[in-house]
Amino acid sequence: MNKLMDILGITFYIDLYKKKKHGYYQLKPYNNKKVKVINIPPELKKEFNAIEIKNIINKKVKISISEFINVITSNFPQDFLTNFYNNMHEIKVYSTNYKFKNFIHRIEFNGSYYATTNIIKISENDSQYKALFHELFHLASSTYKNNIIYCGFRQHNKVNSIDVGVGLNEGYTQALTEKFFGNIEGVKYSYPFETFVAKIIEEIIGQNKMSKYYFTSNLYGLINELELYNSYNNIINFINNLDFLNKIQTIPSIKNLEQEYIIKALKQIIDFLFYTYENKLKKQYNKGLISNKEYIRNLEIFAINLKNIFYSKKNRYVINNSLVFIDNLPTLNIDINVSSLNEEIFLQMKK
Amino acid sequence: MEDKYLNITDTDGNILEYEIILAFFWSKTNKYYIVYTDNTYENDKINLFASIYYPNDNTKLEKIKTQEEWNEIESRLGELYE
Prior knowledge:
The complex is a heterodimer.
Chain A: H1 2-22, E1 25-29, E2 35-39, E3 53-55, H2 59-75, H3 82-88, E4 92-96, H4 99-105, E5 111-114, E6 119-123, H5 132-140, E7 142-145, E8 148-151, E9 154-157, E10 163-164, H6 166-181, H7 192-205, H8 207-215, H9 219-226, H10 232-247, H11 257-286, H12 292-305, E11 308-311, E12 315-326, E13 329-340
Parallel strand pairs in A: 4-6
Antiparallel strand pairs in A: 3-4, 5-6, 7-8, 8-9, 9-10, 11-12, 12-13
Helix pairs in contact in A: 1-10, 5-6, 6-7, 7-8, 7-11, 8-9, 10-11, 11-12
Chain B: E1 5-10, E2 15-26, E3 31-42, E4 45-54, E5 57-62, H1 67-80
Antiparallel strand pairs in B: 1-2, 2-3, 3-4, 4-5
């Protein structure tokens, strides 16, 4: 029951956040009756379709898109790539000013993909289009049907605003971006925690299945696959908690609740990853595919690799853990150390 | 990018400055719309204003007339922070 309440608490906060986000501004008519002269920027005096975007398909973008097409078509089977071919056919890339969006979310956006219109927007501050590859993966894994955007592992209903799987989707999108384009300066280190989690899920279910479900926008396929090793409720809680950690970066302030909710979400995610993997190993052991020694060694290595760090706006959460065997049953003790990002760390730089 | 401003001179000679958030042409009504703010807040919400403007007439700033137009403006604003 307590666990359920914890999850409900987080879900409630996300709903509250959604309402708050949409209530950030009040749109009203301009009632000044004394208007005499209006001065507008020169670009508004010409015919245009939208001031906030400006077509910038230039040589650099075309080269990057060609590179992306080569990577995708040579690394993934054709039957995964229906969304990719459909969307690549009429791709549009624009430069945009994220000033308003940055203001609303209080973080800096570098790029976005709009599945409903098949448009990629890149921040005009990103002159090297570093965000382009990440957005191209979104394009290659998206489809839009009956008011629902299916984007990789994310499903976003435009009518009722239900939005699930965004954390895992951003994580795997970034994992693929770093795998194939990580050599390009500035491409790495977006969504670090989500990427870490998505790579572990890929390790558990296998690269082929993970990329198949991703490119074919099949969240249910992924859930079914994970159900081989964990319960449906635990999987849904894991997806919701990763969504919460992804969204918390854009929540202006949840004051004293932040730390409590983040720790609960982190613990559930780490716990979920460990026991999902453990169940997979148990199945392999029961089938005689691995020995007892291999089972324990693999589990210990996995537990060590679950150490990570999560950054909120205010704090760093260092995840540490230790594996103990109680009555021959593996138990993961998770310890999360929180420190403020305002604490000064002095670096001794070698000259 | 430099900020884009809409300056309105009123009949008393005051110059009012607004930051432009969004402007677009909607083919359905064949009109130009502009959304702007004076960066003031009311109940923790930023005030945004919307009007119809005419690219080649610097004396007209019209009110939005229909709910359909308001819906379109809301939708375009939504895309900005989607």
